[in-house]
Amino acid sequence: MKKFMMYALLIPAMAVSFWSCSNSKTNVQQLEGKWNITEVNGEAISTQENAPFMEFNMAEKKIHGNAGCNIFNTSLETDANDISALKIAQGMSTMMACPDMETESKILQAMTTVRAVKAGTDANQMLLVDEAGKTVFVLSK
Predict the structure, then answer these.
(1) H or E element in which residue 111 lies
(2) CA within 20 to 30 Å of 140's CA: 16, 25, 57, 68, which one?
(3) Class of 2-140 in CATH
(4) Can you tell me the mean pLDDT for 18-23?
(5) Burial 58-95, CB ≥16 within 10 A → b, else e
């Protein structure tokens, strides 16, 4: 009977915890610093020598990063009325030819669809989502 009660309480608690982590609004200021891009539009990014990353400077509202080969710089907009709102402007990047231009193109094109940030599965993961709430980027520390 004790095991039944434990499971009866534990399972709903775990379900709520899982749901709240993946769907909770997160303050955009928590993006400060460097984040590795581990997924773009549902596709995992393979770890490589020049692993793609985004580095957020929230005080200056700027993003610097690497899309896998080329370096990019852009700005971002936030909304004082919505702590999770984030819009990434189309930026500039270097134009070197690289072996994997497909991944690079996906990353650069996807940035302009970002509209908000959500919490990931733990403190070392953030999700950048589009207007419909669909995950565009999975970022990890």
Answers:
(1) helix 101-111
(2) 16
(3) mainly beta
(4) 44
(5) beeeebebbbbbbebebebebeeeebbebbbeebebee
The residue count for the chain: 141
Show the tokens assigned to 8: 């009866």
Instruction: Provide the residue ranges of all domains of the chain, joining segments of one domain with +.
Output: 2-140
Q: How far is residue 25's CA from residue 61's CA, in Å, rounded to a whole number?
A: 19
Q: What is the DSSP string of 41-104?
A: TTEEPPP-TT--EEEEETTTTEEEEESSSSEEEEEEEEETTEEEEEEEPP-EE-----TTHHHH
Quick one: what percent of the chain has pLDDT higher than 70?
A: 82
Q: What is the DSSP letter of 32?
A: B
For residue 141, give both structure tokens: 């520390």
> HSE on the CB side for 6, CA within 13 Å?
3
pLDDT exceeds cutoff 80 at 110: yes
Q: Which residues pair with 79 in a beta bridge?
A: 82
pLDDT tens figures, 24-51: 789 999 999 999 999 999 999 976 677 8
